Amino acid sequence: xSEANHTPVLLDEVIRYxxxxxxxxxxxxxxxxxxxxxxxxxxxxxxxxxxxxxxxxAAFPKNHPELLGKVTVVNDTYTNLERICAEHSVVPDxxxxxxxxxxxxxxxxxxxxxxxxxxxxxxxxxxxxxxxxAGRIVNxxxxxxxxxxxxxYGEEQFAGQIAxxxxxxxxxxxxxxxxxxVTIIESAVPAWYQHRKLHCATKTFQALRVAVNxxxxxxxxxxxxxxxxLKPGGRLLVISFQGAEDKIVREMFKTAAKNGVARWxxxxxxxxxxxxxxxxxxxxxxxxxxxxxx
Length: 294
Ligand SMILES: C[S@@+](CC[C@H](N)C(=O)[O-])C[C@H]1O[C@@H](n2cnc3c(N)ncnc32)[C@H](O)[C@@H]1O
Hints:
By secondary structure, this protein is of the alpha/beta class. Helix content is 45%, strand content 12%. It has helices spanning 11-18, 35-41, 54-63, 81-87, 103-108, 134-140, 143-152, 159-172, 178-188, 191-194, 202-212, 215-229, 243-258, 274-279, and strands at 25-28, 46-51, 71-75, 94-98, 235-240, 262-264, 287-293.
């Protein structure tokens, strides 16, 4: 993947609440192109950057020679956070998760994350370790399971109709590309649904991506591990973009606070300012939650 621009969201707020200091270790669990990591490194803190996507992880040192010795890149899933920290002898002073995918995935991965491009139905963050593709889900999964993920991970109101249309179409020929899938979605939903501001394939694509990468399970595992490894006084920041992810984080933070393991740093969720949303519309659904380890 080439270096497309991914603008980091809530950057000022992340630096304010992480408050990194020279000599500290901050773990960036979702490194990507290093938008947040570069700003953390600029404070003099060391960054352990975890990135699941092998193409993005491999490109990082080439794209950021200036961060050599300041950001240690690990190509792995953050669900292995405890092992990764142990292997690098790091007890984190702060941990950041910036969930979801990046502009690099939409624009240059060639893996079918965007319904606006004609690409194979893949959607894997890590094609080297994950055998499940979006193509396998739409071509092989029972129609009820397809409908279930469209409801649970996409909150798609036409889940039943879309799942049925996919099941019918694949009896003739397997779906191969994003365009095949978009055409079927368009045939299954009412005309008014196709002419709204939100593209009628948005929720189906989101649901497939979440299922392919087991994103909700990963968040639950990663956040639990982060609470365990964090140094007392260290802060855990999670930026989520979907209701289901935000709910998992809220419940886990609540439990940690109730059990005396952590305290809330801000009473309410931190949201982007109007000015940030105007400059970077992708930030509009971002929600930042913060706890401090006791
Ligand atoms: C929203 S981007 C992060 C952007 C980054 N904070 C920045 O400002 O440049 C999320 C990144 O997390 C990665 N990712 C997704 N699931 C992951 C996982 N389980 N472990 C590690 N990285 C993951 C994605 O590949 C993607 O590059």
